[in-house]
Specification:
By secondary structure, the protein is an all-alpha fold. The chain contains 11 helices and no strands. The chain is globular.
């Protein structure tokens, strides 16, 4: 299994060379998450170069090229609030749940239900402290690897099926072209033929 480094993440991402603050955030995040990726990849058997490439491609797009660990919804998250169609799907049951449980981490953990499931799995209270998923690189990576595992995405990665992985992570094909480009870069960085 290849050890993921900040240099590999740099090779997978597009770069914000024209915006210094975004470039700084991107670089800082890459250095912060790399060691945690190696730890959690071992725990969740993301242990082949093809599995790693697919994971990194999805994480790259979901985190805006590793530049941000918190989603910026168009309406601040109220579009996910209790009572909305999306909010119901995400298990948001209380007014204010939409903004409180916006997407965080490498795969944008979103919604009260998903934060509760993640909390229960690790006996930690991420419902009361959802910001921990984006503020702590260890937790950001752990959440993504946990999601990858419970959705059995190693199976799709083994089949090199980016369409199915994208559908599971994103609920559709949003950003599929970017995900395919990131996968090409990841395969190149990991020397997958």
């Amino acid at each position: 299994m290849t050890e993921v480094t900040a240099d590999i993440l740099w090779s997978v991402a597009r770069h914000f060379l024209h915006k210094e603050s975004l470039l700084n955030s991107q670089t800082r995040n890459m250095h912060a998450i790399a060691p945690h990726l190696n730890h959690w990849f071992t725990v969740y058997n993301i242990n082949t170069d093809l599995r790693i490439a697919h994971f990194l491609a999805q994480a790259c797009v979901e985190s805006n090229n590793f530049g941000q660990m918190t989603e910026v919804p168009a309406h601040g998250g109220v579009e996910y609030d209790a009572g909305t169609r999306i909010g119901k799907t995400l298990g948001n049951t209380e007014k204010g749940d939409g903004p409180k449980f916006i997407g965080r981490g490498l795969f944008d953990l979103t919604g009260r239900y998903n934060y509760q499931q993640f909390s229960d799995a690790f006996d930690k209270d991420y419902v009361e402290h959802p910001e921990a998923v984006s503020n702590n690189p260890y937790v950001a990576v752990k959440a993504a690897c946990y999601f990858w595992d419970i959705k059995k995405l190693n199976t799709y990665a083994d089949d090199d099926d980016i369409d199915k992985i994208t559908h599971v992570i994103n609920g559709g094909v949003n950003g599929l072209a970017d995900r395919k480009a990131a996968l090409r870069r990841a395969k190149h960085a990991l020397e997958i033929k």
